[in-house]
Amino acid sequence: MKANLKRGEKILGLAITVPMAVYLLIFLLVPLLMLFYYSFTDYSVIWDTSWVGFQNYIDIFRYPEYVRSFLITLLLAVILTSVGLITGLLIAVFMNALHRGKDFVRVIWYIPSLLSMAIVSQFMNMFLSPDAGLNNIIEALGGDAIIWQDSTFWMMFWITVLLTWKGLGSTVILFIAGLNSISADVYEAGKIDGVNRIQEFFFITMPLIRPMFGFILITGFMGAMNTFEPVMLISKGGPDRSTRVILYCIYDEAFANFKYGFSCALSVIVAFLTFGLTLLNIRFTDNSIFKVKEEDLQ
């Protein structure tokens, strides 16, 4: 009887894991191996493919425009993660303190996260139109219309605002979950010890939600590294390539310049960079600054 039960469990386990393994093999491992192989070629669907070795990788670091795309992407990721963490935490603390309409406010804040980035980007295009949107308000107040698309500062600013607004709902919900996981007894003990609101926030709340900080930091940074749609639909990498993030660079090289092998090399570097940043963030998350120590609660 037990042997039959164990055999049934093994069959069930195989029935669950084998389809997942096949799926990962076909849609993850094989494409990664193909990507890695083609990054050493001048692959094209038009002419013959030839082996070029490390030439694609050498060209990436030879031309400053590609290094600049990496730096722009990292800068955008740092800005989005920093602004999202600070703003999301403050909004979560405010919402958690509400006594009425708390659920309604949470739903309102989370709605942007459910919207399609393509649709939101098109609304932003209308908002930044030279003949409509925000310029109508500026002209009504007596100012001159601004061609936002010609300004390197404003295009990066509005893309950052859009991405922050779009991702803020998820950040707030995660912080609220972290805040709600703190036992009320901890705050009661703090009040008995004479802890005021500011001390309560910095010495009780912050240490107890540090694990959530780590999770949001990882997911937020990785999400920012994958920025593509708003750049594609709003700025198209301009002006003067100031918003040409690395994913748009890969798209541009592959489908505009037909340099598929070169774009594969860029993708490999992005994959290794993302993997390295993930390991770094996980290590940082496991560090003691993200762990609640006993002395933090004393």
> What composes the largest sheet?
none
Structure annotation, total helices: 13
Mean pLDDT comes to: 85
Low-confidence stretches: 288-298
Tertiary shape: globular
Helix content: over 70%
Radius of gyration over alpha carbons? Answer: 25 Å
Structural class: mainly alpha
What's the number of extended β-strand segments? 0
Approximate strand percentage: under 5%
Secondary-structure element string: HHHHHHHHHHHHH
Assembly type of the chains comes to: single chain
Could you describe the 3D structure shown?
- The chain has 13 helices and no strands.
- The protein has helices spanning 2-38, 55-62, 64-96, 102-114, 117-127, 134-140, 152-180, 184-192, 197-208, 210-225, 229-235, 246-255, 260-286.
- It starts with a helix and ends in a 12-residue tail after the last helix.
- The relative contact order is 0.13.
- Mean pLDDT is 85; it is low at 288-298.
